[in-house]
């Protein structure tokens, strides 16, 4: 019997675009999207941020040094975070699960800035009972440490938890731990996956 549901955030609760992020950040400093992509994504600096190795202030200072220009902190926060679009179709699913008294836990690779932005912009994270973020865990999926942290938060046996994520590699890692897990394709497919487990939403 499932007692807890683990949801990924990016491309499950809210769709996002790293291309848009890099383009918007580039506009602040006269750099191209590809240049920012190389500095931020290809270098792994974004994953350091999501791992919690940098605070927002430290990330801001790093960015200014990397591009050789002074950049307004708030403008950088907005440029780097205004990249999300709420998956409206997931809201009724969350509400139905909550009404049936299931526990909802977020399990996401994310940075402080993105989490805070989604919290303020969309009424979705407020529906959750607890949060497993990479920056709090000090590890990113699919590393075992973040899943170990998640197992502490679900308040049930692994086999009593269900996890949905759009990245197959992360789903595979969860299954190794005994968690019921499925790749998120779209909301209607998720509903079908739940119905097959006897859960109506």
From TrEMBL:
Pfam families attached to this UniProt entry: Hydrolase
Keyword Hydrolase included in the entry's annotation: yes
Enzyme class: hydrolase
A GO molecular-function descriptor: hydrolase activity
InterPro entries: HAD-like_sf, HAD-SF_hydro_IA, HAD_sf, PGP-like_dom2
Keyword Protein biosynthesis listed: no
Coiled coil start-end: none
EC number: 3.1.3.-
UniProt entry keywords in alphabetical sequence: Hydrolase
This protein's name: Alpha-D-glucose-1-phosphate phosphatase YihX
Phylogenetic classification of the source organism: Bacteria, Pseudomonadati, Planctomycetota, Planctomycetia, Planctomycetales
